[in-house]
Amino acid sequence: MTAILTSASVHDSQAAIALMRLTGERVTYLYDLADAAYCSGVLREVSRQEGHVPLIDHNPRRGEKIEFAPHEAERYQARSQAERVNSLLKDNHGGRHVRVRGAPKVYTHLMFGILVIAAEQILRLLQ
After folding, report:
1. What are the tens digits of pLDDT across the range 45-91?
2. Over the stretch 90-124, which tens digit does the pLDDT of each residue have?
3. Whether the Cβ atoms of residue 114 and residue 90 lie closer than 8 Å to each other
């Protein structure tokens, strides 16, 4: 739905709010799913302000881990789909070793990989 290119020094969680808002402008969605690296009260609050349900895995920095309710855990399982796409992009479609320089070229290189993954999924549906 939405992609932004950042430098390697930017942690994914720093781009999460921008991604939530950009995606919310493009499509209507209900849940923000994220792993424990995104565990932040700020991200949860922004998600709620955007009208979403934040399903962000708890990171037990100090104390014990807070588990999802059963219905939340079931919904959270959808996150594995996003992880599979990330893995496909890195392992099979040039996302791990980018050999071009400059943000526009890198972004184009990665989006061609995403385009191929989308085409493969459409072809699978048609079979």
Report:
1. 999 999 999 999 998 887 888 999 999 999 999 999 989 999 999 99
2. 999 999 999 999 999 999 999 999 999 999 999 99
3. no
Tokens 């424990």 belong to which residue?
Answer: 36
Structural contact between residues 35 and 58, judged by C-beta atoms closer than 8 angstroms: no
Name residue, tokens 């969605």. Answer: 29
Amino acid at 43: L
Instruction: Report CA torsion sign: 81, 83, 88, 89.
Output: positive
Reading the block at residue 30, the tokens are 């209900």
Angle CA 35–39–44, to nearest 5:
105
Length of the chain: 127
CB distance 113 to 121 below 8 Å = no
3-class DSSP assignment, residue 5? coil
Per-residue pLDDT at 1: 84
Place of tokens 């999460």: 16
